[in-house]
Amino acid sequence: MPSPKLTLTGISKSFPGVKALNEVDLELYAGEVTALIGENGAGKSTLVKSLTGIYQPEAGEIRIDGNPVSMQTPHRAFELGIAAIHQETVLFDELSVAENIYLGHTPRTSLGLIDWRKLRSEARKVLDEMGAAHISEDTQLNELGIANKHLVAVARAMSIDSHIVIMDEPTAALSHKEIEDLFTLIEHLKSEGKAILFISHKFDEIYRIADRYTVFRDGEMVGKGLIKDTDQKEIVQMMVGRSVDQIFPKNNIKIGAPILQIANLSHPTEFDDISFDLHQGEILGFYGLVGAGRSEIMQALFGITRASTGSVTLDGKRCQFRSPADAIKAGIVYVPEERGKQGIVADLPIYQNVGLPSLHKTSRSGVLQLAEEFALAREFTEHLDLRASSLSQPTGTLSGGNQQKVVVAKWLATQPRVIILDEPTKGVDIGSKAAVHAFMGDLVAQGLSVIMVSSEIPEILGMSDRIVVMREGLIIDTTANDGTLTAEQLVMTAAGISEAAA
Amino acid sequence: MRKLLKNREFWLALALAMLILGVTLRAPGFGATSNLLDIFNNTSILVILALGQMVVILTRSIDLSMAANLALSGMIVALLNAAYPGIPVPILLAIAAISGAILGAVNGLLVWKLNIPSIVVTLGTLTIYRGTIFLIAGGQWVNADQLSPAFIATTRLQIFGIPLLSWFAILIVIVFFIMLTRTTIGRALYAIGVNPMASVYAGIDVGKTKFIAFTIAGTVSGLCGYLWVSRYVIGSVEVAKGYELSIIAACVIGGVSIAGGIGSVGSALLGALFLGVINSALPIINISPFWQMAISGAAIILAVIFNSRTSRQKGRIILKSARVGK
Amino acid sequence: MSDTQIRHIPDRLDNPLRSAIFSWQSLLLVVAITIFVANSFATPYFLNPWSLSDATFNFTEKALIALAMALVIISGEIDLSVAAIIAFCSTMMGFALQFGVGTPGLVAIGITTGLLCGAFNGALVSGLRLPSIVVTIGTMSFFRGLSFIVLGDQAFKGYPLSFAYFGQGYVWWVVSFEVVLFLIMAVIFYFVLHRTTFGRQIFVIGNNPVTAEFSGVRVRWVKFLLFCLTGVMSGLAAVLLTSRLGSTRPSIATGWELEVITMVVLGGVSILGGAGSIIGVVLAALIMGLVTFGLGLLNVPGIVMSIVIGSLLIAIIALPILAGRLRARMER
Fold first, then answer.
1. Which of B61, B200, B238, C51 has the greatest CB tally within 10 Å of its CB?
2. Which CATH architecture group holds C47-316?
3. What is the pTM of this model?
């Protein structure tokens, strides 16, 4: 057995109230890809940050080639040959591609000044080597699309003379083709003898690219080994600590008349010619790859952005929503994908978050009635089984799943007719996911209509009555989910791969 | 060419040229080289200060204490010069710059170590520095007859037909240009303004970089303290009162983004010169100098509107047709 | 999930009294009392009711604007043009005076001009979505510049006798009209900020404007109203100040914007938006007034007091941070 390039032993890191990592171990081997697997909140990102000098672990040891090292700053991590491609694109929009690649380790002249000529030629070389010849080193970064930005992030990692490369969910924002390109690149890195840590949620990718795996659960290492010695079911069991059969509590609700009709909705750059109906008691699933324009349609429907043409008809009446306030008044509400940024007010207490869109109901001539606000918040949060110490607790201190419950409670309190859920289980742990699904069943049972935007195929297939598939701002297909539709068909439609070719 | 049209400095330079041309049509002497050099000389201090302020604004901060720093550092060297006329000018210049650097570093330390928003810190130090002038000068003014001839001559000495004050501005412009484009600290200033999170990942210490920015702004403020006293031959509590906002105005007109990360030596230089040209042009085209303030106010508002128009983002581009169109 | 037993969540855990005792306002109150006591020991003239009443004129006009400024800053914006608005309102009143407009008309003109200036700021910030700090640096020059255009180096004088009441009159004994007006306004602003849906929306916007928008709060409209409100309060302050001084010069109230903001920040309003209280602002106004007045009695010139105010501003924000760090170090 070869000796590992990087060894972590007994690494611990805690934050106020949470033990993010508890004596975890990890080994990376030269020329091999190790997949780090775990649910959200399992401690993967904390580990990445501890490995790149952003966090300082409280206990444990990091060894490279058997020698203990310490990483006090991100710069030290560079020097030790550790390069990371982070989950969020941590790049600089207003700077050039070349500078983005070399910022923090720019080549300098003998006078100590930045050597722009060398910087640009080195950047060119790195980009060419990794097969990104189409990106010019002089382009300002904000002129690139998300996939190309990602390639720049990879180039940045390559530009460091690194032996260890960390990729934290590198495929999250990439299309099918771009993912293939990335895998080619990873193979190339492997052949150069680099030790790679690959973090992903997607099992197909892990099986495709990884040689080894390490599983984290709740900040602890619960298993590791060779990919070829295990199967998917075993890894999932390690991840969640129990065997999980995802059950979707799809009740048999009688679908009623159409209540919301969208016709020919268009936007200059985001979507075109969008038409669909939503029926009473229906769950309408919207599937597509990330960036297919689903959220953009929902935000236009909710009055955040304006569509240029097309009509929205609610209960047979033409409506035009100039702002979310108009949409809410009409009974359409939107649970956004970016919960922290768009869903909650982190520093304000739960009851104020829940009561926010219903203030006109809990107040008298504009004067707050705290008792009524608390009563409203209690009614809707207790029904959702919110776990909180009190209704005055700042919402930002809750876990992701509980924050989601606050957002949902906030909207249910307005007694809407149509609820739009954008990636309702994103960042929610597996246990709470089932609760969210059960709850969607309750909603339609009460006569609401639900639009669910989701990128998770089991969720789409398990919950939707009908499925709308989108690609590049267009509706490609609308089908009844009668049990004959398969996951493969969905993916191929969304990715634009014709059946004949497959 | 397309790149040029998107360039803010290009448009501002064009506007400035049009302005000078327009005024020259009414008053032919205005466009003469000697007059333009005069305007530059009159604007030199504002140019230097605007560069210092820009460095701070790049890092998503603001320094409201620059004018007070200038006045205090100026008073220190004025008092020294009055008491010990023998101290050579270069030493006094260095003292002014060091005093400014220390005052700037105080701002920087409070922002860096205590994480207090810069607007609050500099609001506080602004009043403290002004008050200190009164304390050290005992409420007195330093007048022309108390200053040594060498002190007063510093800004007036002509080299190649250009006053030394202008040479100071030119030197500082060059130093800032090299610093902002060719040094790692210069690029770090941009980086933390564009994306502080990404800067941390790139190994840049955000707090320390802000500290450096405030120290730089302080240093040029101190230097300008000397230049101001030498040029206007007065040291008092009232020196440059309210000037902090003119400095910021010059940056804003030049297109420096208050949100950080956007701005160049050209922006600060042109923004300051724009204000300078307007100030000199008004009396020449027979507009009362009392119009000056309203006009520069209007210029700021227009500049902000213009800059926001050019940088506004228009939704995501998802449709293929839209991509082709672009 | 509806079958499981419903878990009860209490409204609040902490004792409201306890949290009030350890709040920013209590810290300010302690500071205010200390300064008050120190002043009364330092000089025998301090406790005279008439001199105390005189002291209030130092801060009531600024404090009136601070009430509105607090709302603007809590909403995440800032208005640097308030002093310039005062100058312009005063100029407009003086201008109207030349046409023989009487006291009620002057007051109406002062306040309306303030409203229009505020609406102009609000339109630029909300309508064109520009950053308020640069917009109001611009309008600050613009409004005061307009006053200079009208007045040059001249002054408007000769305001009617009845007009003098606002800035010089007493409602009862030593209680001036300015103080009464300020107290009434403070109560109204307290009620608006802490007891109405409008106030709640201000906090939400300051904390997270995107969530506010997504929750149906008309963010830009609320901000527009806040700038209008600040304009109105500046107009009101212009009426009081013009009445007190009995004349208008374009340089009136120079530098007040920074003093007003200092008052608001000292009062515990977060400059980043989303937090603050009217009680804090009122106490901060009181502290600034007491410091200025007390040092004045000790013959310390005004400019030196600014050192105290400036240090107080930084210290009162820095001390809790330092204390927190010290506590964290001791616990470790």
1. B61
2. Orthogonal Bundle (1.10)
3. 0.85
